[in-house]
Design brief:
There is one protein chain. The protein is built from eight helices and seven strands, in the order H-H-H-E-E-E-E-H-H-E-E-E-H-H-H. The protein is an alpha+beta fold. The protein has a domain of about 150 residues: Beta-lactamase, CATH 3.40.710. A three-stranded antiparallel β-sheet has the order 5-6-7, sandwiched between helices. Strand 2 and strand 3 form a beta hairpin. The chain starts with a helix and ends with a helix.
């Protein structure tokens, strides 16, 4: 994410998020790449709908229709009015393919196989000091998200269970088990993501941004070796300090040794008591000037 932020810039990134119609205003700062913004679970699902919805940003809904006890539809809510194309279908499909790795070999390893689903994508998330644990996941037919955290930001999950894959993902898994068990919902385990006609396998070993699949990530935050250590070093001149440090006249720090070869006068060559007399003359001069002015007045 830091690499992408460096390529596109904060302003372009912020403008793209605004295209998703997410209500929260996102300021254009580089720290966005590290997740330094507050979004609700509702807004996170709104953002992930782009990948699950084949490029269309869709405002999440809680109720799709209302039926009476006989199954007659009393009210159906139109989802089309809340949809807007944000990225191409090809881009969303490539993102989905990458997030399929999360539920197979990544930080949510084994999730898809445990549920018996043909295809699904997901992403775990953990903030600093385990303050928040996230899991966003979707199948070709349904998107859901889980957030674990506290209103009091000082509360942390200190043990190893505070990560998204340990705290949030099991709740998501339990929800989808019930979804698949309820046949009346029409959610098919065998559903597949629709592959665009212009799709080609663009992620390969020649791609500098490709993740080496021979070293699957076993934990969040593991460095996969993409990029160089000096990629983000500041290339300009060093910015000097805004002020010069104050030096005390009575500073006892020994003077640096002179290596220029010039001889300094010996201590015995200096008039004895010259420093003391100079100090007294300064004081006396100031007092004399002060009282002399008063005498003139």
């Amino acid at each position: 994410s830091a690499y992408i932020m460096k390529q596109v810039g904060p302003r372009e990134f912020s403008d793209f998020i605004s295209k998703l119609n997410i209500p929260t205003k996102i300021d254009a700062f580089p720290s966005m790449a590290l997740g330094a913004m507050d979004l609700s679970l509702f807004e996170m699902m709104w953002g992930y709908s782009v990948f699950a919805g084949r490029g269309f940003s869709t405002r999440p809904v809680f109720i799709t229709r209302i039926e009476d006890r006989n199954g007659n539809v009393i009210k159906r809510f139109d989802l089309g009015s809340n949809r807007q194309e944000a990225v191409s279908e090809l881009t969303s499909y490539n993102m989905t393919r990458m997030m399929q790795g999360t539920v197979d070999i990544g930080t949510a390893k084994g999730l898809r196989s445990r549920l018996g689903a043909s295809e699904m994508g997901g992403k775990t998330g953990t903030t600093n000091d385990n303050a928040d644990a996230w899991f966003m996941g979707y199948t070709p037919q349904l998107l859901a998200g889980v957030w674990i955290g506290c209103d009091d930001r000082f509360i942390r999950i200190e043990n190893g269970l505070g990560y998204g894959g340990q705290a949030a993902m099991p709740i998501w898994e339990g929800f989808f088990r019930k979804v698949y068990a309820d046949k009346s919902l029409g959610i098919d385990k065998d559903a597949h993501f629709a592959q665009p006609a212009d799709f080609t396998n663009m992620v390969n070993s020649a791609d500098p941004m490709a993740v080496d699949i021979t070293v699957p990530p076993e934990g969040e935050g593991v460095d996969q070796g993409v990029g160089n250590a000096n990629d983000y070093e500041y290339g300009g001149d060093t910015i000097g300090s805004e002020s010069v440090p104050f030096k005390d006249e009575n500073d006892k720090t020994p003077a640096k040794k002179d290596t220029s070869g010039k001889k300094s006068p010996k201590q015995s060559d200096k008039p004895i008591g010259s420093a003391t007399e100079e100090k007294k003359s300064r004081k006396g001069g100031f007092l004399k000037d002060l009282f002399r002015k008063r005498d003139k007045d």
